[in-house]
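Thought: the user wants the 3D structure for the chain below. I'll pass the sequence to the structure tool as-is, report back what it returns, then summarize two notable features.
Action: structure_tool
Action Input:
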Amino acid sequence: MNPATRYERTVLVFGGPYSNLEATRALLDQARRLEIAPDHVICTGDVVAYGADPVATVELIRRSGVRVVRGNCEQSLAAGISDCGCGFSPGSACDRLSAAWFAHADRHLDEDARAWMAGLPSRLDIEIGGRRLAVVHGGTETVNRFIFASTASREKQRELALAGTDGLIGGHCGIPFTQIVGGRLWHNAGAIGLPAHDGTTRSWYSLLTPEGDGIRIEHRALEYDHASAARAMRDAGLPEGYAAALETGIWPSCDVLPAREIAQAGRPLVPGQAFWPHSAELAPSRRREPAVDHLWPAFPKAEAERHKFRDPDFTADGHPRGRVGLRQLETLWFNTGTLCNLTCRNCYIESSPRNDRLVYLTRAEVAGYLDEIERNRLGTSEIGFTGGEPFLNPEMIGMLDDVLSRGFRALVLTNAMRPMMRHGKALLALRERHGGRLAMRVSLDHFSARRHEEERGPRTYRPTLDGLVWLARNGFELSVAGRTMWGEDLDEERDGYARLFEEHGIQVDAHDGARLILFPEMDPDAEVPEITTGCWSILGKNPEDMMCASSRMVVKRKGAERPSVVACTLLPYEPAFELGTTLEEASGSVALNHRHCAKFCVLGGASCSAGDRATKPAVGKNGVAATPDPAEALV
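Observation:
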């Protein structure tokens, strides 16, 4: 283990000067005002990047005497590598923009500056407040690894275990945060050379102060002459996107950002502090999913948000709440159980290998509801199966056979991985007997492996793609479900899927909203309007187009004697949306008394069913559902 420097007083931490001379001067001036000595100031790397003044910024940092960890930009420049090594996806907007600013830095830096960069440590170890911390640029082993607040706790746990310390201070991602992961600290001070994508011109640094029973961590905003920095970038002929970012507080691309950080774009960060006590218990590093205590930043909900979605009949300000009647039961969904072979980061119903809140339905239970459809002549044409992963249910093939033999169309939502492939012969036999009435919808969250695995976990993309190719080659009726969680332009996202499908011979039209369904995301922290009876005409929406106007879902709760019917595939756990145990009992209207009703269905225009009319929502900038101004239209 590296020797550690012990600190008894406040340490100032900052990241990413990014060749922004004005911000670097302001930061060092602030350290002097706070009377923090240079050896108590630590930079997490990337002294050189987007800005206009790489030479002057390097010289200023070197003269200052602060401690610096080598970032990926220093590593590339020292080694004479032709790109910044930031970890951007090839061909992405960030990758294209980086070529210009990296070439600018490469032209101007001399050999002495590169030698200094080569001599920087990849890691510093410090002791403060009785705890040992490792300071790195990105990850413990990989210098350009992006680790955000929303990065899975098990991934942070692995990095902490590799570091072998009580906590870790990182940089690279550019957005500050502080978390306690299994009792251990993960801290990112942010960057000073660019705003934090929060819609303000400020950048960020932090102070770590040892106190009697722990460490106080302060996140502080840095004000500096951003206008001069932006002007210098334009004078140097650097990409306009980053110059504009200094003035708007919004990055020119979200390529590297996870969904949660994209959803929080433009929400101003507020300076604050957190405390890490000595009493915090350090969880064993082998724990699979350590608890996370997110200390900063906090985005408190407005007081008005706390009173929404409480009364089934009225909105928070007293307007009659919108309701949707059952036009006809066109699709009946069966949740075969919430157990799944994956634990996705943003699973709508929290399926996982351990979540059995909804237990396996049996073949006999499914048959009972099919009998009710036929007995009451409900006119249902489609039976959908979802989970969890439906093919983990041991009676799945039998249930499919029953559905298809009765003349229904069957739609199965699957990740197309090993659980499905184990039933390959049986599925081929069903397709042979029933043809196109057996349809499969494969969850491929993004056309790129990186984005898909960001959501579903490592080594999940190739098995899903292989399963999708197998289905296509064997003539199954196919559709694909993706996500719009990365803020990409919707047409560009569909183009990406189209290229993938063409490359692998997958006969799915990526520009057909019923064949490639791109679902809107549901940020639990976002402000969501309530839907009133007056919203239908204002928004130009028809309640008969909503998912609950034509479908219901059957679930079986753990410990329940029999299944029950709920209003929506997205709300299997909400007692207010449990409508009865029979389809007849569940035929009443549904109050739109949940944030998902507004965000996902009414405003997002999404539907889980193949035949519903709401499969292709109107889309505005960056693939977000286009709606009138909520302040004018909604409560």
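Final Answer: Structure generated. Residues 611-635 have pLDDT under 50 and may be disordered. Residues 4-296 form a domain with the Purple Acid Phosphatase; chain A, domain 2 fold (CATH 3.60.21.10).
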